[in-house]
Amino acid sequence: SPVGITMGINITSNNAFKKLADKLKAEKNKKLEVGVMIPDVATYAMYLEYGWVQRVSGKQNAYLSGILDLPIHDKDGNYIQNFGTLHLPARPFMRDTYAKRRSDWTAKFKSRFLKTFDIQHSLGIMGQMATDDIKETIRNAGIPAGSFEKRSKLTMALLEARGEMDKAKKSKGKGLLPNNVMTTKPLTLSGVLQSSITWKVS
Fold first, then answer.
1. For tag attachment on the chain, is the N or C end more exposed, with fewer CB atoms within 10 Å?
2. How many angstroms from the chain centroid is the CA of residue 163?
């Protein structure tokens, strides 16, 4: 007859499994939000994400024409509508990043959760990763880099006319303002959009 020993494992849980089950049950409805949480900036971000087309009113036409030193009346005194519509192209910094990176975020969550069994902590790790990726898309003007439409000639002319180019040249090297005025790269003018991307678990 076979000779050997029989071994068994005696688990002393000290209620550890119950505590874990209770913790997971309590955290099962946790959700992660990533994006812009500041209402004013969120409105601005929505326009950048989805773009817009706006019909130019007479007052707006006069303002734009004045800044760009364009006449609003011809030699006979007839009104000139220099601008019919303004178009801001969509630059989907959140949707594109989500589409390209969500599988990486999910993998990060799973990996962290299997190590910690902590849903809130794992969502936080995933939230930080998503936030960093969205900020990178903004810095790189798209995903892939450079895929977003550049600033328009009108935008560059308005920045020039408002004296923003001169301010940027004077402050260059002084650390006063980000020197993002002179570039045609979109989404980078003040840095507010990028710095407003954040996450929260609720």
1. N
2. 27
Per-residue pLDDT reduced to its tens digit, 70-120? 999 999 999 998 999 999 999 999 999 999 999 999 999 999 999 988 999
Closest CA to 90 of 149, 32, 31: 149
> What phi and psi values does residue 92 have, to the nearest 5 degrees?
-75, 75
The Cα-based distances of 177 to 136, 154, 194 in angstroms read 20, 22, 15
Kindly report, residue by residue over 149-196, the tens digit of the pLDDT.
999 999 988 888 888 777 777 766 655 545 588 889 999 888 899 999
Q: Which two tokens stand for residue 40?
A: 């004013």
User: What distance in Å separates the CA atoms of residue 106 and residue 102, rounded to the nearest whole number?
Assistant: 6
Residue 75 in tokens: 């030699």
CB 152, CB 158: distance < 8 Å: no
pLDDT of 37 above 80:
yes
Distances (CA, A) of 78 to 9, 61, 71, 73, 74: 95, 14, 11, 5, 5
User: Of 21-25, 115-119, 125-129, which gets the smallest average pLDDT?
Assistant: 21-25
pTM comes to: 0.81
Strand 52-55 with 85-88, pairing: antiparallel
- Which residue bears the tokens 């798209």? 142
What tokens were used for 18? Answer: 């119950």
